[in-house]
Amino acid sequence: MKLKIGNINATELAKTYNTPLYVYNKQTILKRINELKTNFPNTNICYAIKANNNQEILKLISEQNLGADCSNANEIKMAQKANFKIENSIYTAVNPTNEDLEYALKSKIKINCDDISVFKRLLEIGKPKIISFRINPGFGKGKFPSIVVGGHGTKFGMNEDLAREAYRLAKEKGIKRFGIHMMTGSGVNYQEYFTELTNTIQEIAKRIGDATNIEFEFMDIGGGIGVPYEPHEKQLDIEAIGRSVEKAFKHKAKLMIEPGKYIVAESGTLLTTVTTIKNNFIGVDAGMATLIRPALYGAYHPILLANNIDAEFTQEANIVGPICENTDFFAKNRAMPKVEEGDILAIEVAGAYGFVMASSYNGVLKPAEVLVNNNHHQLIRQREEI
Ligand SMILES: Cc1ncc(COP(=O)(O)O)c(C=O)c1O
Predict the structure, then answer these.
(1) Ligand 1: centre distance to CA 295 (Å)
(2) Distance of CA 39 to CAs 32, 34, 43, 171, 193, Å?
(3) Span 127-165, pLDDT tens digits
(4) Per CATH, which fold does 89-259 belong to?
(5) I need a labelling partner for 205 at 20 to 30 A (CA). Which of 47, 161, 285, 382 fits?
(6) For residue 261, how far is its CA from the centre of ligand 1 (angstroms)?
(7) Among 61, 258, 357, which is best to mutate for testing ligand 1, by the most ligand atoms less than 8 A from CB?
(8) Which residues of the chain have pLDDT under 70?
(9) How many Å lie between the centroid of ligand 1 and the Cα of residue 96?
(10) What angle, 0 to 180 degrees and rounded to 10, lies between the N-to-C axes of helices 26-39 and 55-62?
(11) Ligand 1 atom with minimal separation from the 262 CA
(12) What atom in ligand 1 is closest to the CA of residue 353?
């Protein structure tokens, strides 16, 4: 059987648009958004634009009435262009430039400062109506050490004592509306974690609120909802997570979440052509410049032979790209069927942190992107040209 994306053969897409090619299934994105909206009915859901910022994908998500989670002025501009409601969106400023802060202030997005020094810089530029601070609660979780962003030794957020000072300063300066934020890691596959975060943020908010006499308008527990990449990983029970998080959230503030991966990861497939078979190396035309997650984190992505997904495994192979680095691999010792030069491989679960992390290393040109909706396909980013 041939691999289908929507109702279209992946090999046909590869022929039409050439490879390497990112293909996204619109229906998968809509399904994930619907699940979130259904299971977090009282929560403000902001899509983390960093996961995939293709304008067509952003428009699709903003049409579902989600807010945006932005990490710099460019992402705020992308969100505005895609018609996200900026008042419902949030900007987390990690080591921002003054230009970023100035743009954010003008845009009226909720600003979430990662440090008191950032807030002091912001005050020199202007005074926001509402301010939030990112707390580092001293712990974090994530699929790989590099994507745990809470806990000791990480660069993100402030401890509670410093955050309390920041809220005091904000109040002294006449700011009257407040939020509080935590983002502690990505790719979390442990369901109970999100309820633990919800409890922690309320406890911290209570202590800070009591000490400073401020009320919080929103509490944001960040993104991090994991998706299955590896054969042994299961889809999280999003219904149970939503129910448990909303039940644990007792505060009258608005609860916020910032999922990226959960919304777009599974929608994406990277199609790549086998160029070279050399011993047990299968060389393909995509590499770490196209999808860096395996080289960067040792991340696992399922890899299928697109023209025959049922073919029996007959070998253990290394699947590698054309880049001059020994880290340029997609899989090591992976059970694979017989593969021939010219075959199309489908690297799955590539919709998040895929194209957005692509680079021009070795003079590689960025791939094209295509959106599939059932029987239709549409080019949503031209292949880069020299
Ligand atoms: C502040 C913030 N929010 C949300 C996210 C999205 O995380 P995920 O894609 O794991 O949901 C990230 C990812 O790094 C982040 O830094």
Answers:
(1) 20
(2) 11, 8, 9, 35, 16
(3) 999 999 999 988 788 888 877 888 888 889 999 999 999
(4) TIM Barrel (3.20.20)
(5) 47
(6) 8
(7) 258
(8) none
(9) 17
(10) 30
(11) 11
(12) 9
Pocket of ligand 1 (CB under 6 A): 48, 50-51, 69, 92, 183, 186-187, 222-225, 258-262, 352
Amino acid at 169: L
69 Cα to the center of ligand 1, angstroms: 8
Nearest-CA residue for atom 5 of ligand 1: 223
**pLDDT tens figures, 28-50:** 999 999 999 999 999 999 999 99
Indicate the domain borders of the chain. Answer: 4-23+265-381, 89-259
Name the pairing type of β-strands 130-134 and 177-181: parallel
Q: How far apart are CA 210 and CA 168, in angstroms?
A: 11
Structure tokens at 355: 């194209």
The superfamily CATH assigns to domain 4-23+265-381 is Lyase, Ornithine Decarboxylase; Chain A, domain 1 (2.40.37.10)
Q: Measure the CA–CA gap between 67 and 71, rounded to whole angstroms.
A: 13
What do you get for the CA distance between the two ends of the chain, in Å? 36
